[in-house]
Specification:
Chain A: Keywords: Cell membrane, Membrane, Transmembrane, Transmembrane helix. By secondary structure, chain A is α+β, with helices and mostly antiparallel strands. Chain A has two domains: 2-52 and 272-404, no CATH class; 98-232, no CATH class. Helices cover 56% and strands 17% of the residues of chain A. A six-stranded mixed sheet of chain B has the order 6-7-8-3-9-10, sandwiched between helices. In chain B, strands 2-1-4-5 form a four-stranded antiparallel sheet, with helices on one face. The chains are: A alpha+beta, B alpha/beta. The A-B interface holds A 1-2, 5, 9, 12, 16, 312-313, 315-326, 399-400, 403 and B 53, 56, 58-59, 78-79, 82-83, 85-87, 91, 93, 97, 99, 101-102, 110-111, 113-116, 119, 159, 163.
């Protein structure tokens, strides 16, 4: 009952000073709106990175040679020849948390079809590759394990390669092309995947059996990579551990020695890239928080003015029986009402800004519920924090002095 | 025999200003009975304002006894004093002290807002009744800027009545008003007094004292005179004697 009265009094004071209250709120409104919009941008970019990586196969595990620091200088992973075909076979046989495994050997070269040519990369893999990369075929078929065993000269190519070497709209499947002057028969065309988040064209590839690429193009007997997919996304971390143990045994590493290979799941890749965008989000939120702080100081300022202006009113309220605590509550409620109303308007403006950014700037955004809850809570706390001191000052006034104040 | 509303016994109040001690009240004793209309007179510096602050429970005496309606004020805390002011005293000020841009009825309701025993409906009802008592039953929703000085003071009087105080305490309540309007206000006070309301009126205008039943004159912190007025003038009659207004 009493509290309700105080809320009414405070509400009345706000309504009587509409313009001033609105200007005071502006700081809070802008602060809250920017916190929400910034977090939405941050969350949005994080989600878009996550979805791109998931598109590349979210339970994919990459095994690379290297990470060998026994020498004074570290070599780059690709130069090291420690990953062998035998390693791949052991992994395939023993790692039961993996559903698909393929060796990868890759090299650059020129794709030639008649008078057209195009620089691309050839990947030597086995048929599991499509499952691991989560990609289908738009026409033709994938090569088989028989092709791998016989090192057949067949390829499946990406759309970018098709566009560049079959420029006259010819159907590529069944045609012969040359890669580094070695003739291959095109047996399939991959589905278009477009660019990934890192700007890499995922359609600019030539895929062939790894045996063919090893023997006929690169003339090597080691592997550049082994890629695999865990049976589920949840098992990815355990699969990484399993593969690591298998490889350590295979490479006869002592306990004290570090791995001479690296095994990474997509999850780690996601967190690496997410941490960059998280950093950015933290920065954005820090800037937005400063405006919230300034908004709070604005409230404190206006509450001071209000207490000064209404000294006589405070004296009167005390004379007719208002206790110090009543006066304190009245001004505190007033400050909280200003900040909460400002917060509410800020949330609406922030959501509006997010919709605008999404639709007109085409940035990915995602409004997190927690950002609304947090910025709203911060508002209420700002009101209490910055309203307290002026309210305290009002409540400590001597009624006699306050009544005589001109 | 009516009971004493106010009992004051050897009341002293001193202020310390730097190294100097100012004795504002130097041992004052008097009682006010229920239904009295007392004026407290004195020039500036006589201790009149200090007396008013203590009577209004805004200030506490340094020594001596002050009882209002049987409650000794000396040992009360700030909050307890606020409750006494809320329940036992009705204040009227020289400058009305109404809340700006707030309707008459809301101004009158103000003291009851601080009394949690009064419900919203009762508060409104009592405010309307108080405004009717001072003759403003048709101006409930006017704001102070839409009212004349005399009407504003009437709103203030209604506000002082609304909590059914044991005593109305008026501080130079006619000081800002012209003669005609101040006679009107005095006549209203007399009317209220007739209904049995105790009034203490602090003023420095001698003619105001002629309307009251008792006068206490202060000088330099002591009581110089305390006399009953046996020939109380009627403010209404005085008002009738004033020349007609030009317009």
């Amino acid at each position: 009952m009493r509290l309700l009265n105080l809320i009414k009094i405070a509400f009345k004071a706000i309504v009587l000073n509409k313009m001033r209250t609105l200007l005071t709120m502006l700081g809070i409104i802008i602060g809250v709106a920017s916190v929400i919009a910034m977090l939405a941008i941050g969350e949005g970019s994080k989600e878009s990175i996550r979805s791109t990586i998931s598109n590349m196969g979210s339970n994919m595990i990459t095994i690379q040679p290297g990470a060998d620091d026994r020498g004074p200088a570290r070599g780059s992973g690709g130069d090291v020849q420690t990953l062998t075909l035998q390693n791949y076979e052991v992994i395939k046989a023993q790692a039961d948390l993996l559903s698909y495994v393929t060796p990868v050997v890759n090299g650059g070269g020129q794709v030639i079809n008649g008078s057209n040519n195009w620089p691309s990369t050839i990947y030597g893999v086995n048929p599991d590759y499509l499952e691991i990369k989560v990609v289908g075929l738009q026409s033709g078929s994938m090569f088989t394990n028989v092709d791998v065993q016989s090192a057949s000269k067949v390829v499946v190519i990406g759309q970018t390669v098709v566009d560049n070497v079959f420029s006259d709209g010819q159907e590529p499947v069944g045609q012969m092309i040359r890669f580094n002057n070695i003739p291959f028969k095109v047996i399939g065309v991959l589905e278009e995947k477009g660019e990934n988040t890192f700007g890499q064209d995922q359609d600019d590839v030539v895929i062939a059996p790894y045996t063919t690429v090893q023997k006929r193009i690169l003339a090597i007997d080691y592997l550049n990579q082994v890629i695999a997919s865990a049976i589920s996304e949840d098992d990815a971390a355990d699969a990484v551990t399993q593969v690591t143990e298998i490889l350590r045994t295979e490479h006869k590493l002592l306990d004290a020695e570090e791995d001479d290979f690296s095994v990474r799941s997509m999850e780690e890749l996601i967190s690496t890239f997410s941490s960059t965008s998280e950093m950015l989000t933290v920065l954005l939120v820090a800037v937005a928080s400063i405006s919230l702080l300034i908004g709070g100081i604005g409230i404190m300022n206006i509450m001071y003015v209000s207490v000064k202006e209404r000294t006589k009113e405070i004296g009167l309220r005390m004379a007719v029986g208002g206790k110090g605590s009543d006066i304190l509550m009245q001004f505190l409620i007033e400050a909280i009402l200003i900040s909460i109303t400002g917060g509410l308007l800020g949330v609406i403006l922030g959501l509006g800004a997010t919709v605008f950014i999404e639709n007109f700037l085409n940035w990915p955004t995602s409004v997190a519920l927690y950002s609304i809850v947090i910025s709203f809570a911060v508002c209420a706390i700002t009101g209490i924090f910055f309203g307290w001191y002026p309210a305290r000052k009002a409540s400590a006034l001597d009624p006699i002095t306050a009544l005589r104040y001109e | 025999m009516s009971k004493d509303i106010i009992k004051i016994e050897d009341l002293k109040r001193q202020f310390t200003m730097g190294t100097e001690t100012v004795h504002a009240l130097k041992g004052i004793s008097f009682n006010i009975k229920e239904g009295e209309f007392v004026t407290i007179m004195g020039s500036s510096g006589s201790g009149k304002s200090t007396m008013l602050n203590i009577l209004g429970c805004l200030d506490q005496p340094t020594s001596g006894e002050y009882e209002i309606d049987g409650v000794s004020v000396k040992a009360l805390s700030r909050n307890e004093l606020a409750t006494i002011r809320n329940e036992k005293i009705g204040f009227i000020f020289q400058s009305y002290n109404l809340l700006a841009r707030t309707s008459a009825i809301e101004n009158v309701e103000l003291p009851l807002l601080y009394n949690s025993k009064v419900s919203t409906e009762e508060r409104r009802e009592r405010a309307i009744k108080a405004l009717e008592m001072v003759g403003l039953g048709d101006r409930l929703h006017h704001t102070p800027s839409q009212l004349s000085g005399g009407q504003q003071q009437r709103v203030a009087i209604a506000r002082s009545l609304v909590n059914n105080p044991v005593m109305i305490l008026a501080d130079e309540a006619t000081g800002n008003l012209d003669t005609r309007t101040s006679y009107e206000i005095m006549s209203l006070f007399q009317e209220l007094n007739q209904k049995g309301i105790t009034i203490t009126f602090v003023t420095h205008e001698p003619d105001i004292a002629t309307f009251s039943s008792r006068t206490i004159v202060l000088k330099d912190g002591s009581i110089m005179q305390d006399y009953k007025n046996h020939k109380v003038q009627s403010a209404a009659e005085q008002l009738a004697k004033l020349p007609k207004q030009d317009d």
